[in-house]
Amino acid sequence: MSLPKRLRTLARKSGLNTLPAQIRTGVERGLEQRVKLAITGLSRSGKTVFISTLARHLLQSDQGQSLPFFAASAEGRIIGARDLSQQSERPFPLQTTLAGLQASPPHWPASTEQLSEIRLALRYRRAPGLSRALGEYSTLYVDLIDYPGEWLLDLPLLQLSFEQWCQQQQALFAAEPRAQVAAEWLARQHAIDWLAPASDEQQARLSEAFRALLQQLRKSPHSLSLLQPGRLLMPGDLKDSPLLNLFPIIVPLPENMDQAATDSLYRRLQQAYEAYRDQVIRPFYEDHFRHFDRQIVLVDCLKTLNQGEACFNDMQQALNTLLHSFHYGRNGLLRRLFRPRINRVLFAATKADHVTANQHHNLDRFLQLMVESAQREIRFEQVDTRCLALASLRATTAAEARMDGQHLSCLHGHRKDNGEEIALFPGEVPVELPRAEDWNSDRFRFVDFAPRPLPAGPLRPEHHIRLDQAVEYLLGDLFR
After folding, report:
1. Which Pfam families does the entry mention (predicted)?
2. How many domains does one find in the chain?
3. Confidence of residue 216 (pLDDT cuts 50, 70, 90)
4. Do residues 353 and 446 lie in contact, with contact meaning Cβ atoms separated by under 8 Å?
5. Boundary residue ending a domain (259, 286, 313)
């Protein structure tokens, strides 16, 4: 007897289909699923907009209108959705974020400063076939976590000693643009006697100076990503905490460090690093990241192309460094009981609406090149991965221009910086990593667009690009 027939026979013999409704509902609830989705992205990668619009679409998925490639919705099998976020200790400000996107004129939400959570319940009818033997209806609970992207890059510090972290930072600050921007900071460090007694005030003053340096490196024209400690840039509820009186030593250390006074700046920083790692990073990781089941990694490829080679190399290194902090591997029952692991990863190039439709494949390809090393390692662990260009909220519409007798695909929208209405050909996304001459030729000038108003009523497919494909890849198999 085949396996499907055996399960149907088992269900019939067990009387599941003939149990009283109340008991049958209890059995079905025992089969409900919960999935924690890690929405991962560096600062300004679009996490907050993605979470907001994803939640909005899922809450309307029982209408079967806006996500045509999300099979459970398109087939009419989702019968209801509910927002349970208020049960969370830190609910995500969904209504506030959506109000900003629905305003006139609409505006992008502010950068995330705290950790928050959306919890959704999706009630659905199982697909015909084998799964119906377990009951006709079930509920999938989806947890979406938002947090500052700056905090992510602290996770690798869990595996580094203070000395190892300083060595990594020394290598980073030896290269441009860090070396030039940090020249005064480096001179200041050379003048420090690391072995002599130091005060709390000196440590705090130097930490504040390093924080200002990181802020400068984060802004244009540098737009660097690999900036640690992340809480110096986005402290959250640790603002003014002594736990943030921390910075790396990025000059060669004296050989007689064993003679350092117990209250020397070296010993103080060493202790501050260990306290930061154990009291800030480790709880954040253990409370959230190690429990994730699936992951989407949002990457702003167009920003790296606009900002140049140093920005591209830094973001690529940051992504590869970050992804080593996650547990990957098959998410079977035994592993879920003892060590949850991510078993499906989607790499998503954001702002697909900032290029024309014929460039979406190129954007897929370029993202694949950026994360090739990390993706290869993840696949070695038998984890499903995919690269996809998307826009969770479409900010442009397609337009067409005529030049030299030929039709040219263009975009129509409003510039983010000044609100000017424009129609333009945004340029082509390369399908190979740029060469040195490409970076120096001012070849890439992708425009940032302001959002189009998000309707208060039902959403439609034209309000996003490929968001439904992302949902199907990340969650679709759980509705069968």
Report:
1. DUF463
2. 2
3. very high
4. no
5. 286
Take residue 279 and report the two structure tokens written for it. Answer: 């009291």
pTM recorded for the entire structure: 0.87
Same domain, 213 and 345: no
- Residue 160 shares a structural domain with residue 128: no
Instruction: Return the bridge partners of 401, or none.
Output: 408
Residue range 163-174, pLDDT digits in tens: 999 999 999 999
* H, E, C per residue of 273-288: HHHHHHHHHHHHHHHC
Is 323 a member of any domain?
yes
Looking at residue 330, its pLDDT comes to 60
Task: Give per-residue pLDDT as tens, 323-347.
Answer: 877 777 665 444 444 455 788 999 9
Query: In this structure, are 271 and 322 located in the same domain?
Result: no
> Comparing C-alpha atoms, which of 309, 288, 315 is closest to residue 41?
315
- Residues 174, 282, single domain; the answer is yes
pLDDT at residue 449 tops 90: yes
Tokens 């190690």 identify what position? Answer: 290
The mean pLDDT of 107-131, rounded to a whole number, is 87
Give the number of C-alpha atoms closer than 13 A to the C-alpha of residue 302, restricted to the C-beta side: 27
Average pLDDT, rounded, for the chain = 87
**How many whole angstroms separate alpha carbon 74 and alpha carbon 84?**
23
In a domain, 406, yes or no: no
Indicate the burial class of 449 (C-beta count within 10 angstroms; 0-12, 13-18, 19 or more). buried
Question: Do 263 and 312 belong to one domain?
Answer: no
Per-residue pLDDT tens over the stretch 263-285: 999 999 999 999 999 999 999 88
For 244-260, letters b (16+ CB in 10 Å) and e give bbbbbbbbeeeeeeeeb
